[in-house]
Each structure stands twice: as C-alpha cells, then as structure tokens.
Design brief:
Layout lengths: L25 H22 L1
C-alpha cells in the first residue's frame, strides 16, 4: 500500500516532497536535513 513514508526522494507523495518544493522552502530544508543522514547511511557503504 502506498501511504506516506514510501519513497520521499522519489516524488513527494510520501512525507518527503523534496522535488516539487522550492529550494528556499523551509519544509524542503527540513526534509533535506532529515534525509541527509539517511542518504549518507545508504551511500556510505557504497562509497567505501
């Protein structure tokens, strides 16, 4: 079931609409701040 919390960085249907929002949008910044550690954790092993 596609509720929220599926793929935030995919489009914005979930709880992380980081694409359609403005770059200066406070919500976007908050989303990026919350998604930053997640992305780092996902990409960290790949980069290493």
């Amino acid at each position: 079931m596609r509720e929220n919390r599926t793929h935030g960085s995919e489009g914005g249907e979930g709880d992380g609409p980081s694409r359609p929002l403005s770059k200066n949008d406070p919500v976007l910044i908050s989303c990026l701040e919350v998604n930053k550690p997640r992305e780092t954790t996902l990409y960290a092993p790949d980069t290493q």
